[in-house]
Amino acid sequence: MLKSLSTSLIARGILAAAVGIIALAWPSVTVLALVIVFAVYAFTAAGLQAARAFSSRTAGPVIGHLLLGLADLAAGVVALAWPGPTAFGVVLCARPGIGAITSRCCSACST
C-alpha cells in the first residue's frame, strides 16, 4: 500500500492520465473494452436477479426477477454478438450524462 494520501492521489492521477492517453491512441480498442465491460455487468446483473428470484418467498417477485434476469442476459448476449450497435447505444446513453456534468462544471466555473 501507499504511505500517504497524497502519494495515493498522485498515483491515481498518473494512472488516469495513462488510461486517457491509451484511450485516445486506440479508440476502437477502448470502445470494445467498454462493450465487454457492459456485457460482464449485464451477465452479473442477470445472475444477481436469478439469485434474488430464488431467495424470494412468494411467487410474484420470483417471476419479475426472473424476467429481469432474462432481459439482462439478453443484453449481455447482444452486446457480445453485435459490439458495434452496442457501442453506439452506450455512447447515446452516456452522452446526456456527460453533457449534464460538463455544463454544470462550466456554469460553476464561469460564476
Could you characterize the architecture of this molecule?
There is one protein chain. This protein has four helices and no strands. The protein is mainly alpha-helical and 111 residues long. Helix 1 crosses helix 2, helix 2 crosses helix 4 and helix 3 packs across helix 4. The mean pLDDT is 82.
Furnish the topology, listing elements before pairings.
Layout (H helix, E strand, L loop, with lengths): L4 H21 L1 H28 L4 H23 L1 H28 L1
Helix pairs in contact: 1-2, 2-3, 2-4, 3-4
List its traits.
mainly alpha; 4 helices; 90% helix; 111 residues; extended
Quaternary structure type = single chain
Low-confidence stretches: none
The tally of helices reads: 4
Query: What's the total number of strands?
Result: 0
Span between N and C termini?
40 Å
Order of helices and strands: HHHH
Largest sheet: none
- The helix/strand class is mainly alpha
Helix content: over 70%
Strand content: under 5%
The chain-level mean pLDDT equals 82
Rg on CA atoms, Å: 19 Å
Shape: extended
